[in-house]
Amino acid sequence: MAIFLTKDSKVIVQGMTGAEGMKHTRRMLAAGTDVVGGVNPRKAGTRVDIDGRTVPVFGSVRDAVDTTGADVSVLFVPPPHAKAAVTEAADARIPLAVVITEGIPVHDAVAFQAYARARATRVIGPNCPGLISPGQSNAGIIPADITKPGRIGLVSKSGTLTYQLMYELRDIGFSTCVGIGGDPVIGTTHIDALAAFEADSETDLIVMIGEIGGDAEERAARYVADHVTKPVVGYIAGFTAPEGRTMGHAGAIVSGSSGTAAAKKAALEAAGVSVGATPTETAGLVLALLAETPGNLA
């Protein structure tokens, strides 16, 4: 099992024929992803050869879905076109849209998130690395060769920290790693991923990575306390960030005690989450929990 993305997922790439789209389509195919098509209205009807695999290009998401049965779209489109691209995917009733694009205006993100939600399209992102179910499928830009299949679930605001935890725990492996993005307005949240991992019979432990700014982690802590029975290990990026200054992701701003790493750490620990001070210490907490429950993730 995995969450949101499995070996049976049929993936299309909006913006596949651009430089970034081609580069990461090649990587997704190499990871075993079933990429069944690309979307570019100007190149409809053409085909692209990628490392021995011929991938058709469709004029619209609807055409791609009708022809291939695609159920996931990965979007590599410029920020000004992201709203239209997500709207098109939602109109085609794509169940999962993974928006890699960064720099999307907040008002556009608000509009397409609401539009997609009303049409039962789950959005991951924007400004995210996507998600990977190692050994099954990879939708986005997460390196596929830094870990292996296992029974840890990972949800993270930070792409870089996603990769670091995947690498540090590579000997254990992951069911699914989800990079939800750190913009102020995102689709899939920590809570959405926590709920999915809790329901997944092949995820035994959850790692949750947050960062300063906002109250998403505090809300996730309340959810863990009320609904999650599996062990959760957390990490909050930004302990050394100066108060009142925007840091990194557009959503990371601290005002007073609200949104600080210390406040988030306290909320998570009150919910029974073990929180590391560094990514390496966080990985160590995972290993310690596994040592307490031998055979749990074998």
Automatic annotation (TrEMBL):
It is an enzyme of class 6 (ligase). The keyword Protein transport does not apply. Keywords: Ligase, Nucleotide-binding, Tricarboxylic acid cycle. The active site is at residue 249. One of its GO terms (molecular function) is succinate-CoA ligase (ADP-forming) activity. InterPro entries: Cit_synth/succinyl-CoA_lig_AS, Citrt_syn/SCS-alpha_CS, CoA-bd, CoA_lig_alpha, NAD(P)-bd_dom_sf, SUCC_ACL_C, Succinyl-CoA_synth-like. The keyword Ligase applies. It catalyses: succinate + ATP + CoA = succinyl-CoA + ADP + phosphate; GTP + succinate + CoA = succinyl-CoA + GDP + phosphate. HAMAP family: Succ_CoA_alpha. Belongs to the succinate/malate CoA ligase alpha subunit family. This is Succinate--CoA ligase [ADP-forming] subunit alpha. It comes from Streptomyces javensis.
